[in-house]
């Protein structure tokens, strides 16, 4: 076994960079947001200080499908602002216990913290995304301003949100061809919101939590972060259009969306590909 410490691993470095990026974007004020990063046994076992159970913490649902799986997870109540300076207190490495009702802490949370209050929601999402994609690694929750604002001014339906976001920039349909999932407003930190989110994650990699934020899933930190960045950039363009008076004189048309999909060899969600134009009287 190497003498290298987990704090010096690329996984902790990625977690520091991503949480710092989320914070500096203004999407994770105070203790807002949470990230979980699935790691393999091979990855974890390379380090000198990840093979002893430090503590065990309960999990409030049956996560036995993930028994034995490792996650690097941000801590409950912790500020993303601080992760970069003190990852060993603000984040932790856990392994889901055999019965699925608790997690063993192997590293981190060294001043008594434990995984995010949204950990059940993360695990439920990991389970459903893993059914779709065996490379699924990351679940990321944050509070992007413009997307949240849109959840007050638009009807909470997936077609409306997806089409508007697709039409804000050519990149959108290429990055999230399946569109954006939307759940009703629900209380955070509950298994109910976790179950509703995970159900949507069967069809989408990003799910809007109205008046709160977004849940994203993906194969890597960069991909998941990039997905959320692209959605929020589209939301910023929408906000800016509204601030400029709201009227669109031209747009990315439904035919343009189909051409983009062809060019990049993608199949966009067929339910969202045709519908209302953003240009009035069209
Ligand atoms: O972790 O963002 O949804 C704090 C939150 C809860
Ligand atoms: Zn939140």
In short:
With 282 residues, this protein is α+β, with helices and mostly antiparallel strands. Helix content is 38%, strand content 16%. It has two domains: 1-116, L-fuculose-1-phosphate Aldolase (3-Layer(aba) Sandwich), CATH 3.40.225; 118-282, 3-Layer(aba) Sandwich (L-fuculose-1-phosphate Aldolase), CATH 3.40.225.
Task: Give the secondary structure arrangement, pairings included.
Layout: H1 10-24, E1 34-39, H2 41-44, E2 55-58, E3 70-74, H3 80-83, H4 87-90, E4 91-96, E5 102-108, H5 119-132, E6 138-142, H6 145-153, H7 158-167, H8 171-175, E7 181-182, H9 191-200, E8 206-209, E9 213-218, H10 221-243, H11 254-263
Parallel strand pairs: 7-8
Antiparallel strand pairs: 1-3, 1-6, 2-5, 3-4, 4-5, 6-9, 8-9
Helix pairs in contact: 5-9, 6-10, 7-10
The protein binds Dihydroxyacetone and zinc ion.
Q: What is the topology, as strand order, of the major beta sheet?
A: 2-5-4-3-1-6-9-8-7
CATH superfamily of the largest domain: Class II aldolase/adducin N-terminal domain
**CA(first)-CA(last) distance:** 66 Å
Q: Domain count, please report it.
A: 2
Structural class: alpha+beta
CATH C-level of the largest domain? Alpha Beta
State the major sheet.
9 strands, mixed
- The percent range for strand residues is 15-25%
**Radius of gyration over all CA atoms, rounded:** 20 Å
Hetero groups bound? Dihydroxyacetone, zinc ion
Q: If you average the pLDDT, what whole number results? A: 97
